[in-house]
């Protein structure tokens, strides 16, 4: 049992060492997982910091691009303002040109009107002159007709000179008046011709001057218009060139910014993909570590359960060991009492044997004792019902032994004769009783070991009851034997010692068995 306990304790120690190793492995795994978590957290923080830096750089670049675009917009707005100013100036100049064109048209219209009025006046003068010429012709025709009529009249008057002198005077006065009127009309025609010539000359001069001034103004305006158009074309060409340059610069800048942004985007995507892969690997490692930790925890839980079961078994074994130690202590005490009782009984038996046993009756007694002991051993190994019958059989054997026991003198002679013949003496009752007590202690130890190894409590209790019954039967047997030996003239001291030993054995609280020598 001690070896089993030591083996169990060694197993418990091994399991504790395994648990400590598992706990160390679990701590190492926890440290590794913590380190991996720290690494993953640092990697995630680094990735987040890199992303934040990249985002800040992108934001700065976007701000710079926005500032550049704002500056370009402001420059374009300034240029647009300048262009608008130039356009306003051009429009103003175009308005001035239109005004000059309107003024020239008005001048041309006034000149045309004046020329038309001059032409109308000239036509009127010409009409007047024609009318005057017609009047003159009419007057000349009238004069001619008058002259003819006068000549006819003169001829008539000459024919009739004397018709009337008054009519001749009247006709002469009328002719003079007609001549005066003709002269006046001629003078008026000359004046009209002179006025017409002067008016035509003035009109020609005015028209020439107006044409010259208008031509000069038109040339000046055309030159200014051409210069303004040239300036406008130059400004438009400059504006177009500036717009083209600006567009080219903007396109180049946008293309460069887009290319840079795409490169940054690709780089960021690659870095993000790398970071995702790192995060996936870290998560995978974390999952593996968690799985390993869970497995280690499960193993540790199983080991803990095993340890708990072993600790329970250890406690049970300790309790059993304590019970065994208590039983051994009780058995030691019982053994000490039994040894004392058996020594006293052995002393009494030696004294009785020295006094009463002859050699022949001793042999019969030993044969009968052997047969009775074999029957008692078979009855002790059988059931509890047969134990009582075996006890009765042993009592019958004791009665026969008491009847066949020789007197003391014959016993001493037999022992003496046996010693002289060289026969090996039999074991003394003290040795047999001590051997029986040791065998009883060994039987109790074996029964305790069998109960510690896992036998049921009912079988152990039945065995204990059998042993108590056998011990009671043996005690009764020895008490009867001692009473008969006392009645067969034992010495008073031996009989008293045997009675005291039997009384002490009966009063002892421990189990005491007195099997024969063959029950070892």
Automatic annotation (TrEMBL):
Annotated region (Disordered), positions in chain: 67-97, 154-177, 200-273, 347-472
Low complexity: compositionally biased ranges: 200-213, 229-254, 371-390, 427-461
Ranges of compositional bias, category Basic and acidic residues: 72-97, 260-273
Domain of life: Eukaryota
Coiled-coil ranges per UniProt: none
Protein name: Uncharacterized protein
Organism name: Eimeria maxima
């Amino acid at each position: 049992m001690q070896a089993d306990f030591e083996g169990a304790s060694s197993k418990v120690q091994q399991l504790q060492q395994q648990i400590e190793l598992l706990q160390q492995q679990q701590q190492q795994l926890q440290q590794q997982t913590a380190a991996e978590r720290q690494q993953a957290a640092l990697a995630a923080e680094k990735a987040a910091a890199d992303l934040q830096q990249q985002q800040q750089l992108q934001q700065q670049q976007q701000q710079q691009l926005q500032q550049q675009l704002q500056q370009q917009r402001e420059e374009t707005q300034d240029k647009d303002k300048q262009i608008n100013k130039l356009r306003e100036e051009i429009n103003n100049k175009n308005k001035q040109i239109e005004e000059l064109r309107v003024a020239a048209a008005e001048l041309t219209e006034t000149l045309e009107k004046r020329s038309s009025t001059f032409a109308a006046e000239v036509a009127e003068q010409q009409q007047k002159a024609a009318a005057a010429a017609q009047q003159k012709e009419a007057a000349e025709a009238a004069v001619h007709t008058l002259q003819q009529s006068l000549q006819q009249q003169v001829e008539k008057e000459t024919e009739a000179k004397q018709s009337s002198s008054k009519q001749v005077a009247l006709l002469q006065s009328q002719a003079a008046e007609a001549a005066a009127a003709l002269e006046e009309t001629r003078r008026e025609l000359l004046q009209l011709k002179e006025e017409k010539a002067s008016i035509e000359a003035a009109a020609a001069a005015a028209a020439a001057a107006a044409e010259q001034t208008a031509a000069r103004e038109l040339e000046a305006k055309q030159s200014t218009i051409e210069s303004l158009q040239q300036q406008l074309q130059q400004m438009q060409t400059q504006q177009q060139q500036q717009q083209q340059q600006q567009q080219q610069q903007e396109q180049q800048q946008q293309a460069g910014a887009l290319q840079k942004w795409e490169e940054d985007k690709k780089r960021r995507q690659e870095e993000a993909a790398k970071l995702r892969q790192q995060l996936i690997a870290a998560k995978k490692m974390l999952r593996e570590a968690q799985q390993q930790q869970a497995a280690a925890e499960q193993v540790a839980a199983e080991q803990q359960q095993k340890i708990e079961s072993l600790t329970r078994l250890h406690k049970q074994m300790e309790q059993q060991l304590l019970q065994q130690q208590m039983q051994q202590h009780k058995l030691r005490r019982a053994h000490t009492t039994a040894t004392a009782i058996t020594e006293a009984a052995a002393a009494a038996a030696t004294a009785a044997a020295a006094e009463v046993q002859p050699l022949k009756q001793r042999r019969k007694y030993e044969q009968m004792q052997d047969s009775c002991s074999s029957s008692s051993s078979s009855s002790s190994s059988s059931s509890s019902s047969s134990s009582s019958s075996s006890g009765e059989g042993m009592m019958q054997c004791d009665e026969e032994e008491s009847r066949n026991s020789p007197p003391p003198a014959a016993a001493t002679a037999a022992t003496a004769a046996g010693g002289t013949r060289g026969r090996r003496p039999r074991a003394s009752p003290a040795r047999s009783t001590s051997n029986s007590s040791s065998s009883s202690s060994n039987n109790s130890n074996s029964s305790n070991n069998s109960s510690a190894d896992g036998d049921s409590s009912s079988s152990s209790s039945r065995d204990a009851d059998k042993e108590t019954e056998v011990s009671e039967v043996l005690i009764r047997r020895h008490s009867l034997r001692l009473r008969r030996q006392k009645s067969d003239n034992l010495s008073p001291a031996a009989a008293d010692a045997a009675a005291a030993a039997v009384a002490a054995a009966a009063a002892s609280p421990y189990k005491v068995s007195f099997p024969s020598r063959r029950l070892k």
